[in-house]
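Researcher: Please translate sequence to structure tokens.
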Amino acid sequence: MFMKNFNQNCNDKKLENKKKRLRGAIVLFALLPIIICTVLASGFSSAFAASGDVSWGVVPNKEQRVPEAPKGGAEMLSEHGGFYIMPSCASGQKKVYFTFDLGYEAGYTAEVLDILRDNNIKGVFFLCGNYLQETQLINRMIAEGHEIGNHTDRHKDLPKCSTENIVKDIADFDILYKEKFVGNPNLRFFRPPKGNLCRRTLQAAKEQNLKTMMWSIAIVDWGKEEIDATKSANKIADRAHDGAIILLHITNAGTPKMLRQLLPLLQEKGYGVGGF
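Model: Translation complete:
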């Protein structure tokens, strides 16, 4: 009887072990697609990190703190002499800085220049090759103390281009600018189209004696639909921090209205507007 019970117990344990192995195999089979996807995703992530491609964008806050930059982006930018915030003012006054990206003229730049002139504000206008035909406006920018920045000749997505074409697109703008506006100082700043950058882009700009300037505050201020000037001004003021570089476009009818509302809001928060 004892042996019979013993044998039965052994058989039961063997059966239970088989069942456990079977359940384990079923679970592993079910998890296999997830495991494969995770490994592949990790590989793609590593490959992306190794390529050094960054689509610039920051995580805003309302605590007057410098926003979080894209992972690895700020370090890569700094390694190549670029920046996205300005150092604190020696006087201790909090300051923000205005920059404008312009690929074409929509009819609002003269009014923006009026606002900047009336408030003694100097900014950087990052222009594309196509915009260099706007000779009168550019001469006014220069005469009123603004900086012209290199936004490339053809506004290509540079990380997708060959190194040769990256160098060419940056250099071509510089050549065209110097041909049209003889006697002006060499350009100092560069900004990649769409905010897309990579190590090759940063290196090409650096080799052409240009500092890459990104931004720490931006809003959606392009498109045909007029932006809400009040909401947009409040959004920028809420995100303000010392040394903030503000990116604006001048392709929207609401931009001049927004600027007029933004300046007193910044003043109320204790911010002045710095120059370059």
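Researcher: Any highlights?
Model: Residues 54-273 form a domain with the TIM Barrel fold (CATH 3.20.20.370).
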